[in-house]
Structure formats: C-alpha cells, structure tokens
Amino acid sequence: MGTGPARAGGYLQGVEDSLRINRDVAIPLSEIELRVSRSSGPGGQHANVTASRVEAVFDVAGSPSLTEEQRRRARARVGARLTAVAQDTRSQARNRSLALERLRARLAAALAVQRPRRRTAPTRAAREKRLGAKRHRGETKRRRRGPSAGDW
User: Which fold has domain 15-111?
Assistant: First the structure.
C-alpha cells in the first residue's frame, strides 16, 4: 500500500481537525462524539452489513470551545447536548459529513445573536384601513340579520 499525497504516515492529511461554526467559533472534532450504527429503512443486503448511519453528538454544556455567554445562549435554545443524525446515503463517509454539516447548522442557529425587535406603531393609513375593514364587516353582518321586532 503506497503513500499518496492524501495519505501519509497512516492517517489522512488535509482533513480539518475542527468544525467551523461561524467566523468566531470553531469546535475541535475531538469535542464531537461520532457514533455509527446500522441504518434503518431500505437498502437490501447492503443495509444489513454496513454501519452507515452516523450520529454526531456535541456536549454544549461541557465544551471549553464556547464562551460562557455562547454556552448559555446555546443551552437555552438546543439544550445541554446537540445531536445530528444522517443515514441518507449508503456511504458512512458521506453520512459523516452530512451529520457534521447538520450539527454545524444547528449550532450556528443556536449561537446567532438575535437583534431585539424595535416596536413600531401602525401608520395612519394602516389604522384607517383596519377600521374601514371592520366597518365593512360589521355592515355585512348587520345586513344578514332579519328584521327586528321594532321594524314591523
């Protein structure tokens, strides 16, 4: 077995050792637990012998890569442990990259700082439109009613 440009010393080179979440945060792959198991669903005999399902688990509460503020924000949105599962393809390697990408997307969404909503008052035109619609609806309902006792 030769050593090509991608393989030297028994391990793959060029494989990133961290998962970039956003421009400020990168999680080392050593903090992400990857579990493989047999995939469910169709696949024939191949599915019965191949552990292609990949589950990526990240411990939000115990991660030293996140600041205390990031940990607090992420725990409030996704909990203490974040899990992403992929069993879309027959390839374990492809499912691994899919699971890591899903984990990255969920963590990025959890870490995003939401700007506070600025309250705005409805415009005069919007208020008049709403009141006009209410008047029109009331008039429609009034026309549906039968004549009252005083109208006879």
Answer: Double Stranded RNA Binding Domain (3.30.160)
